[in-house]
Design goal:
54% of the residues lie in helices and 0% in strands. By secondary structure, it is mainly α. Helix 3 (46-60) runs antiparallel to helix 4 (65-112). The protein is elongated, with a radius of gyration of 37 Å.
């Protein structure tokens, strides 16, 4: 519908009706849509489809319009939270993918670089040490010397006596 004036006029008229009458209007609009729609209805997202199916089942079960309205209000709040969680999850996934791509690029650069050659400028590898400068980044610490291997277990006999025990069994 491209006529905004008509859309606003319909919205004003609908705002005066009770919930029971609004459901009748919805039924009539869905009937008109099924018979005379000029274009396909834009598809709803998963949460909207779920909420509409719950609403339709409540209506089929003869639940009061007030109860349906309260239920749908609660579901709308829950859906907004879930949409926020989904958006946050998508953002995290995008960040992880970007980090993985960066690591993969660094690995490819390191694999194609000749042995002993310093990393390319701007590469994600370690920075070469800075010779001088007041605000320069210090050189990364060198690796600690390896620890000596642990001593082998002691081969001395245990403190218990290894002499045979005497038994006075019949």
């Amino acid at each position: 519908m491209s006529n905004e004036f008509l859309r606003d006029r319909i919205a004003r008229k609908l705002s005066t009706l009770s919930d029971e009458r609004l459901y009748q209007v919805l039924d009539y609009v869905e009937f008109l849509e099924s018979r005379y729609a000029e274009r396909a209805n834009p598809s709803a997202n998963v949460f909207q489809k779920f909420a509409e199916s719950v609403e339709d089942r409540l209506r089929a079960g003869r639940v009061s319009a007030q109860t349906i309205g309260e239920t749908m209000g609660l579901m709308n709040r829950a859906m907004s939270v879930l949409n926020g969680v989904a958006a946050a999850g998508k953002s995290v996934a995008t960040d992880v993918a970007a980090a993985g791509k960066s690591v993969a690029t660094d690995l490819v650069d390191a694999a194609t670089r000749p042995a002993g050659a310093p990393p390319a400028p701007g590469a994600g590898g370690a920075r070469p040490p800075v010779a001088s400068g007041g605000d320069a980044t210090p050189a990364p610490p060198t690796a600690a010397p390896p620890r000596p291997p642990p001593a082998p277990p002691d081969s001395r006999p245990s403190p218990r006596s290894s002499a045979p025990r005497s038994c006075s069994c019949p």
